[in-house]
Amino acid sequence: MAFTEAERLAMARALELAARGPRGRNPQVGAVILSPSGVVLAEGWHRGAGTAHAEVDALSHLPDGAAHGATAVVTLEPCNHTGLTGPCAEALLAAGITRVVYAVDDPGVASGGGAERLAASDVDVAPHLLRDEAAAFLEAWVTSFRLGRPHVTVKWAQSLDGRGAAADGTSQWITGPEARADVHRHRAAADAIIVGTGTALFDDPALTARIDGELAEHQPVPVVIGTRALPRRAKLHDHPHEPIVYGTRDLQSVLADLRDRGLHRVFVEGGPALASAFLEAGLADRLLAYVAPVLLGGDRLSVTDIGVGTIGDARRLRIDSVTTLGDDILFDARFRERRAWPDSSAAPAAHTAPEEGER
């Protein structure tokens, strides 16, 4: 599929606009309207349930007839259903749009099909411009939508010989300042950060996100899983958000509750038992392993039993990137059997149909 340079720039801009929308049950979507010559006519983004979708928001900034013959560039396939708002596909047709460029297919059973509706009305539909970038941006939303739980990133820091702590249990600091700063960037991008009670009691972490030494604008909600109570003087009680404590190891129910609270990006930080439990249960979508050039020896492994009894049962990973951070190395990986955004021809059914007001 051929795309113009103006369309590529417009899609990059649409992704920037999408990020302005609120996190939650609805996808963050951005749109740009281009004239036939490639000039930007209008921009828009989705501001939450019940508000105009990105395409309609962009069209609302134009006088009647100004979009006739124009191109709509949008990060997600225009929807084809009526909820609290009407179908975007119909709004684009009514405005006289003659070409639609989008990045990723809508995975919804009810909301999908916009591309087919547009093509049936002789609109030139061009899919998958900057698909990988848009899929990565919407990865958390589509995981929540399809699986009924938040997107889960499991992180650990380890020595070169695979240890998460020294023999006496101390683990601060295995990695250097550059790696720790990177962890804080990932914290700031998460909706919730999870630790077990062992980590909460032994390390007494603050679980805040700090950028250049200052509290980040967005702070993840601290979550503790385990049966032991937090001391009244624990640093977690000074967090900007009140900690959520679950006295259970039923990770499925924990994740379902977090999703119901509108928390769709979960960052699991520790310790080894909790990280291993997520891995064994098949609830990890992304892995961040920070490896430091130190040797610790001993039996305090960074990952323990994950239910692999033989090499044939090994959990195979796809390494998305390898990054040097000071003296340390970050491996960013996902499981080979799992795609961030499935091909439309092989997409499993969504966990639930969109609720009223959702896309």
Average pLDDT works out at 88
Radius of gyration, in Å, reads 23 Å
CATH class division of the largest domain: Alpha Beta
Distance from N terminus to C terminus (CA atoms, Å) equals 27 Å
Strand proportion: 15-25%
Order of helices and strands: HEEHEHEHEHHEHEHEEEEHEHEEE
Low-pLDDT runs: 343-357
Q: Give the fraction of residues assigned to helices.
A: 25-40%
Second CATH tier, the architecture of the largest domain = 3-Layer(aba) Sandwich
Shape: elongated
> Could you name the CATH homologous superfamily of the largest domain?
Dihydrofolate Reductase, subunit A
Main pleated-sheet profile:
8 strands, mixed
For this structure, the quaternary state is single chain
SS element count, helices: 10
Structural domain count: 2
Secondary-structure-based class equals alpha/beta
Strand order of the largest sheet: 11-10-7-12-6-13-15-14
In total, the number of strands is 15
How would you characterize the overall build of this protein?
- This protein has 359 residues and is α/β, with parallel strands linked by helices.
- The chain folds into two domains: 5-136, Cytidine Deaminase, domain 2, CATH 3.40.140; 144-335, Dihydrofolate Reductase, subunit A.
- Helix content is 25%, strand content 23%.
- The chain is built from ten helices and 15 strands.
- An eight-stranded mixed sheet has the order 11-10-7-12-6-13-15-14, with helices on both faces.
- Strand 1 (30-34) and strand 2 (40-45) form a beta hairpin.
- Helix 3 (88-95) packs parallel to helix 4.
- The radius of gyration is 23 Å and the shape is elongated.
- The model is unreliable at 343-357 (pLDDT under 50).
